[in-house]
Amino acid sequence: MPAKPARQRLTEAAFELFEERGYDQTTVDDITERAGVGRTTFFRAFRSKEEVIFPDHEVLLGSIESRLDGADPRTALVAVTEAARLVLRHYVAEGELALARYRLTRSVPALRAREIAGTQQYQRLFREFVHRWLGGGPDTALRAELLAAAVVTAHNHVLRRWLRGQAPDPETEFDAAMADTVALFAAREDEPGTTVVAFRTGKDLSAVLPGLRRLLGDEGALG
Amino acid sequence: MPAKPARQRLTEAAFELFEERGYDQTTVDDITERAGVGRTTFFRAFRSKEEVIFPDHEVLLGSIESRLDGADPRTALVAVTEAARLVLRHYVAEGELALARYRLTRSVPALRAREIAGTQQYQRLFREFVHRWLGGGPDTALRAELLAAAVVTAHNHVLRRWLRGQAPDPETEFDAAMADTVALFAAREDEPGTTVVAFRTGKDLSAVLPGLRRLLGDEGALG
DNA sequence: CACTTATACGGTACTCAGTACCAGACGGTA
DNA sequence: TACCGTCTGGTACTGAGTACCGTATAAGTG
Q1: Which residues of B89-124 are buried (b: 16+ CB within 10 A; e: fewer)?
Q2: Minimum-distance CB partner of A146 among B114, B153, B194
Q3: Which residue from A54, A52, A48, A56 is spatially nearest to A35, judged by alpha carbons?
Q4: pTM of the entire predicted model
Q5: pLDDT value of position B149
Q6: Which part of the chain engages DNA, per the record (chains A, B) (predicted)?
Q7: Using one digit for the tens of pLDDT, what is the confidence trace for B173-208?
């Protein structure tokens, strides 16, 4: 009975081998052999060989969903950006693992497709949440979709910059990118008013928000 | 020597069988048997079983690229929307084939992932084009990415509505959606001016544009 | 303690996608 | 006739993923 659980040893062995020989040159048998477990155990822990690369995707999806579920409708936009920040933090916390995954997804088309499909799931959660927030009518469907896509795009932009080593402080860049992105939508909310919203605070956005709202007389377009 | 080329007979046989038994329940052998060709011929015509569903994806990518390549920089935004319109027209022209593909991609996760990866390729072309148009600097990278994502999102929104039978006149809806989407970006171009650009013409956008530009004194934010 | 049950693991055998390689059929050309 | 490029079919192989079975250990129950 080994100390580490099988699932963890499998991911470690898999990433090692992918790094050494490449993804296609590594078989599932190779992975299970190095991990010291049976082949059946692999497919019990992961639905497919590709899934080893994204071990806790489901968990991440779940935490996003719960973050959005417990959101005050008055702070809907903040909730979405905070949920996106959750994803960013997760990858940054992974460190070298995230970098290894990035190298793999860039070189193996199948993995790239898989990752894109994964981000689309985040986007779906965002879209449904924003659409509910906008009332759920058919006239707001496109707007919700655009906003969700924009948030995910901005997030991915910053994340990729960090993965490439171009963003030493990703969270600050994230704040700036999100401010730009959300402002895109807030600017047209009331056409002649041109209330350009740009918040660039560090972390506790929900703490700053009440003060901002008081300042603007409770008509600010930042939900 | 049969009348129809092997490739076409394979796609027809494949879509028939997918419709009858489902994607996973259909083997490549089933397809080649119905098409009356050898198994080797299948993998010469298509790189994989999934690729039968998207027979002319490469062609479409090529026509988009050439549409963008021969674009006047002064009409960059129009070029992007027109390139997106190319995709829409392609699917609409496919008719029942596009509907069958939609049914498949909705029910088979692997195909859905594949399709999403495909749209991401369009988005990449758009992003690179817009980025070049904006000067290619690092400060405009996010903006280009957001714009490309927005155009693709708006296109997909209308396309999916048509695929669901909710858009009897997709091109008109496309015009409206694109106008909304592009306006999102044009509105912030010059902050105090609030020149809200919304063109909702039928088809010949490039024909209307010179007049519009004259009207605005050649400072309009619509590239 | 003995007994049952659940759970995790390993092994075997199978299906099927995808690849590599070889061999024949066909049309055009000298 | 002989040569050549191209399209085609057949055979054999690798490897992912599934189904099923047997077993060991741990946890609960009398």
Answers
A1: ebbbeeeeebebbbebbeebebbebbbbbbbbebbe
A2: B153
A3: A52
A4: 0.82
A5: 97
A6: 27-46
A7: 999 999 989 888 876 544 443 333 333 333 344 444
CA of A6 to C1' of C7 (A): 14
- Considering only CA atoms, give the Rg of chain A: 20
Nearest to A187 among B117, B120, B188 (CB): B188
A171 with A85: CB under 8 angstroms?
A: yes
CA A212 remoteness from chain centre: 27
Interface of A with B in 171-200 (CB under 8 A): 177, 180-181, 183-185, 187-188, 191-192, 194, 196
Arithmetic mean of pLDDT over chain B: 84
Q: Show contacts of B75-79: CB within 8 Å, 24+ apart.
A: B75/B206, B75/B209, B75/B223, B76/B129, B76/B130, B76/B133, B76/B223, B77/B182, B77/B222, B77/B223, B78/B205, B78/B206, B78/B209, B78/B222, B78/B223, B79/B129
CB A192 within 8 A of CB B195: no
Structure tokens of A80?
A: 């979405």
Average pLDDT, chain A: 84
CA-CA distance, B58 to B101, in Å (whole number)?
Answer: 16
CA A55-A124-B52 angle, to 5 degrees, is 80
At B131-170, the pLDDT tens digits run: 998 888 888 999 999 999 999 999 999 999 999 999 999 9
Residue type, B210: P
